[in-house]
């Protein structure tokens, strides 16, 4: 066993004797020879929080850095739970080619890769190249550690023996360490770090002696502590448009705090006076085309354009709130319970209505006074919908399981323009859906499958973990990402192309890792590391 000061035990040494093995499985079509792109790779690119806030209770091993940014496939944050982007929005279009001879297959396959993933070509993948190793400001223990990447900035954090969070900021572009300190101060247990434009926030677990957690915001340029805020054990936090929203469950109040100063700009009482409510960030397609964690939480969402949230109260009412000034639209009754599966994206609120088994779509424009919602789908009475995520500008995807037959679960995509089922495919034991453009990544505990816009698997049951880099590229890890120190073998995939071997990422705490489209940043046993895999 280890003491608090020991580095985490290394549990995965299998790569020590591996000579850069290839990926466990190539895409289903093989891609070794020319393919018919319309049958094998008809896909396009664009878009998807902890979905529903959760109480501040100990959580299982997090995804590479879990975050507190709500909305879409990222979720609301609680003080105890897992809680970026310069790509243009892609609008799905149809490409009609006539009179193409069979002898043009090679050229057509190449053309299709460009046309079907516009704006998101294959990244320039190469073997991992260590950019920099960074020494923390003080020795870190085997306790909580995290990394975040936003734009050209990487942040690292670890826990020192006295409980302080040791944070380091690194400029990826210049290759220079910007600052490092322990300004955040101590906590019984730190839980999460969230990178924001010009700031970085840290959240602790509740102190069992006070039932309070800490929210600390550091200046991104200098590292100086901007402000500190006490959170209740079940409070949830949302970031957007230069504001921080704290849903105070004990006092049934929503607080709007200014990100730079922490000053309270407004507050709203919960509409029904109850402590139970859910906040949903309203995401846009641009929010969901950049790097994301393995659960779909965007590492660098465009928080400047996330200026609305939807609040769902215990009395099943819902309202749209302007983040900047706290103005609340008219409440709408009988929308959803806080525990219902919901997501707000691209001007719509989607609700999987537990009492009727219907999937509904509400227009957020004039939400309080608009007409009846569109009925997207009515599930069989014995069916369970276990996930709900956008999978294109005008599509929504779900996981449907009949009874408890998880080995027969299916991923279903619905077209919101035609109001019809677009496709339905088997996905045994799938737990998580993450959009990759108009494709969707379906993951289990141990494997993942990428379905393109037609439902055709680009690969099936790939062992390990996968995550979105952008709307046309996926980063794959050879194993599960855990807090233990070990090795991960990486490859990068642009659907329609052969997987590119990247190589072994050695001696890292996998669950701490974060990435953008060129580097991966991780905490190791005693220090931090940045490695480049593209560009």
UniProtKB/TrEMBL annotation:
Record field: compositional bias (Low complexity): 19-45
Transmembrane parts of this sequence: 94-117
Keywords: Membrane, Transmembrane, Transmembrane helix
Top-level taxon in the UniProt lineage: Bacteria
Biased composition (Pro residues): 1-10, 55-65
Positions of the UniProt region annotated as Disordered: 1-85
InterPro entries: PQQ_rpt_dom, Quinoprotein_ADH-like_sf, WD40/YVTN_repeat-like_dom_sf
Pfam families named in the record: PQQ_2
Domain Pyrrolo-quinoline quinone repeat: 165-276
Annotated protein name in UniProt: Pyrrolo-quinoline quinone repeat domain-containing protein
Naturally occurring in which organism (per UniProt): Actinoplanes awajinensis subsp. mycoplanecinus
């Amino acid at each position: 066993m280890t003491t608090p000061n020991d580095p985490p035990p290394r549990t995965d040494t299998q790569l020590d004797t591996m000579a850069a093995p290839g990926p466990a499985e190539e895409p289903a079509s093989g891609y070794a020879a020319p393919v018919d792109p319309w049958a094998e790779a008809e896909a396009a690119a664009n878009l998807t929080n902890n979905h529903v806030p959760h109480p501040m209770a100990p959580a299982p091993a997090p995804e590479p850095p879990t975050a507190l940014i709500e909305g879409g496939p990222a979720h609301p944050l609680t003080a105890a739970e897992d809680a970026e982007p310069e790509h243009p929005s892609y609008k799905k279009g149809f490409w009609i080619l006539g009179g193409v001879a069979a002898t043009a297959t090679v050229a057509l396959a190449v053309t299709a890769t460009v046309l079907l993933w516009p704006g998101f070509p294959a990244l320039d993948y190469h073997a991992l190249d260590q950019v920099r190793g960074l020494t923390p400001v003080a020795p870190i223990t085997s306790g909580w550690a995290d990394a975040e990447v936003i734009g050209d900035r990487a942040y690292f954090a670890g826990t020192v023996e006295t409980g302080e969070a040791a944070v380091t900021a690194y400029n990826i572009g210049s290759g220079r360490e910007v600052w490092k300190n322990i300004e955040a101060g101590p906590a019984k247990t730190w839980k999460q770090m969230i990178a924001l434009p010009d700031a970085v926030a840290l959240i602790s677990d509740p102190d069992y002696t006070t039932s309070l957690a800490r929210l600390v915001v550091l200046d991104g340029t200098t590292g100086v502590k901007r402000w500190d805020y006490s959170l209740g054990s079940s409070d949830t936090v949302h970031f957007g448009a230069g504001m921080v929203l704290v849903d105070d469950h004990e006092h049934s109040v929503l607080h709007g705090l200014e990100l730079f100063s922490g000053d309270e700009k407004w507050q709203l009482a919960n509409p029904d006076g109850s402590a139970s409510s859910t906040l949903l960030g309203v995401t846009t397609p641009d929010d969901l085309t950049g790097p994301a964690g393995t659960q779909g939480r965007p590492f660098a969402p465009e928080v400047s354009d996330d200026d609305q949230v939807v609040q769902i109260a215990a009395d099943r009412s819902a309202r749209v709130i302007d983040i900047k000034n706290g103005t609340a639209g008219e409440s709408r009754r009988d929308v959803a319970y806080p525990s219902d599966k919901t997501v707000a994206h691209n001007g719509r609120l989607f609700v999987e209505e537990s009492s009727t088994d219907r999937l509904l779509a509400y227009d957020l424009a004039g939400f309080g006074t608009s007409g009846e919602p569109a009925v997207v789908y009515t599930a069989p009475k014995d069916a369970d919908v276990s996930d709900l995520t956008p999978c294109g500008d005008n599509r929504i995807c779900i996981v449907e399981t009949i009874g408890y037959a998880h080995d027969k679960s299916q991923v279903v995509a619905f077209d919101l323009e035609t109001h019809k089922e677009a496709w339905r495919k088997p996905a045994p034991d799938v737990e998580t859906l993450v959009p990759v453009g108009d494709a969707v990544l379906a993951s289990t505990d141990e494997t993942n499958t990428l379905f393109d816009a037609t439902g055709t698997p680009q690969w099936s049951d790939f062992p390990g973990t996968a995550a979105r880099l952008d709307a046309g590229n996926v980063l794959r890890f050879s194993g599960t990402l855990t807090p233990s120190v070990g090795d991960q073998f990486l490859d990068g995939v642009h659907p329609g192309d052969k997987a590119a071997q990247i190589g072994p990422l050695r001696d890292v705490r996998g669950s701490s890792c974060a990435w953008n489209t060129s580097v991966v940043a991780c905490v190791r046993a005693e220090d931090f590391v940045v490695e480049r895999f593209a560009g």
